[in-house]
Structures are given as structure tokens and as C-alpha cells.
Amino acid sequence: MPFSNRKNNPMNIVITGASRGIGAEFVRRYLDIGATVHAVSRNTDRLAPVARENKNLKLHAIDLESERGPAELAKALGGATIDLLINNAGIYLDHDSDFSHLSPEKIRKSFEVNTLLPMRATAALLPQLIAAKGTVANISSLMGSVSDNSSGGAYAYRMSKAALNMFTKSFSVDYPKLKTVALHPGWVKTDMGGENATTTVEESVKGLMKIIAELKATKSGHFYDFEGDELHW
Ligand SMILES: NC(=O)c1ccc[n+]([C@@H]2O[C@H](COP(=O)([O-])OP(=O)(O)OC[C@H]3O[C@@H](n4cnc5c(N)ncnc54)[C@H](OP(=O)(O)O)[C@@H]3O)[C@@H](O)[C@H]2O)c1
After folding, report:
1. 12-225 has CATH 3.40.50.720 classification
2. Under 8 Å CB-to-CB from 45, ≥6 apart: which residues?
3. What's the rounded Cα separation, in Å, for the pair 101 and 113?
4. Known catalytic residue: 157?
5. How many whole angstroms from 11 Cα to the centroid of ligand 1?
6. Ligand 1 binding pocket includes 89 (Cβ within 6 Å)
7. Which of 24, 33, 62, 92 is most exposed by smallest CB count within 10 Å?
8. Averaged pLDDT in 10-residue chunks for the chain of 233 residues
9. C-beta 61 within 6 A of ligand 1
10. Domain coordinates of the chain in residue numbers?
């Protein structure tokens, strides 16, 4: 098991958007199995009590959207190899916007956070990922699937996640020694998913961790939901 408890050789994991929701649950779960977790967030205050209790949690208060952010993260990690990068940070800005009222700012911001931020973080950490023959897990969404789209709307979110999916595929082709995957976490009860969501963060993250742990090199560059079902782009 590549991501089970390896006491003598603990895995190093980087998680973006670690402050809350799915990202914070990833932090808790990977700490539980003995990983060293590098939690990246613009504000790490919420995770400070956990870090005081567990020395395996390293907090990085870095704005990855800023020009210097990804390089700052690479520098902060120093020579550490990275077994797993989870590009989890994301935003959903156009719940209520129909096409004719969608502002260019919302579209740009969606691409900045949902597409460019994962690409820039991955690029900055590439040497550390290659050194570990690591895995890049991009937290996408079924809403980024072109073939699944039967309800329309949410242009900025859908487009930015579809672009993240394309990044996942191209990157997997260009870096065959790494494992790369796009993951749909389900409709999850978080600030983004809301109260009516059908999946708890615990169920979602448990499923996502199983997929990451069991991901075979032959399945790099594919798209899965948290229950392990392969999704169509
Ligand atoms: N919840 C769902 O139903 C659902 C469904 C499909 C896909 N997803 C995807 O799952 C991932 C996690 O979502 P979630 O439900 O946990 O959302 P969430 O509760 O809203 O948390 C979003 C996380 O992303 C971070 N983030 C937002 N904007 C950022 C920025 N500009 N720079 C850096 N970090 C930023 C937030 O940090 P701050 O605390 O600093 O704002 C927060 O840690 C996202 O990629 C989302 O698209 C979620």
C-alpha cells in the first residue's frame, strides 16, 4: 500500500485549501495514518491547535494565487521529497449567475483558483514530486465533465474544472513516472457544497484516499469519483 502507515519512511503530503472542508479532512486523515502533512492555506489559524498537538503537521500560510506564492511554498519545503500533492483549493462563484449576467471577473477568478493555482503549485513542486515518484491528485468536479453536463449553467466553475481535467490528462502524458488523477469528491457538506449535500466530508475523503492509495500507474491520467467509479471527461 503506497499510502499506508510507513513508520520508518513516513510519506510527505502537501494539501492546498487545507483550512476547511475537504482539505481540512484530508489533513486530519493523513495525520491519523502517520504522514507528514504540509497544510497550505492563506490563513492557517484554524489548523494551529492541531499543529500544536501533532508535530507531523506543518503549516504554510501562503497565498498560492500571488505571483511569488508557489515559489515560496517550494522554498518552505526545502529538500523534502513529496509523495503526494493534493490540489484541493477551489471556488464556486457562479451558483446564481446566468450566462448573460456572468462577469468576466468571476470567470477569470474561477480559472485563477481552480485551474492556474493547481498548475502553478504542481510546477513549483515538480522536482520534489519527481524525486519521490509522487502522485498529483487534482480535486476536480463532475461539473467539469463535458459528457455529464445535462443541466447547463455554472459556466465559470464548469469551464475551470474542465480545464483542470485537461491539465490532469496532459500532465499525466508528459510525466509518466508520476501518477496523476482527477477526482470528484461527490456533493459534499462543506461551505461550498452546503447543508443539502448528500455526502459527508468523512465519507468523501475516506473514498478519495482509497483511490489515491490504490491508483495504478496504468490508470494515471484518469478521472474518478469518491466511490471509485471512473468518470467520463
Ligand atoms: N463540496 C462539494 O460538493 C464539492 C463538489 C465537487 C468538487 N468540490 C471541490 O472540492 C474542493 C474543496 O471544496 P470544499 O467543498 O472543501 O470547499 P470549501 O469548504 O469552500 O473550501 C475551499 C478551500 O479552498 C480554499 N480557497 C478558496 N479560494 C482560494 C484562493 N484564492 N487561494 C487559495 N485557497 C483558496 C479555501 O481557503 P480559505 O479558507 O482561505 O478561503 C478553502 O480551504 C474544491 O476544489 C471544490 O471545487 C467540492
Report:
1. yes
2. none
3. 21
4. yes
5. 24
6. yes
7. 33
8. 49 97 98 97 97 97 97 93 98 88 95 98 97 97 97 96 98 98 98 97 98 96 98 98
9. no
10. 12-225
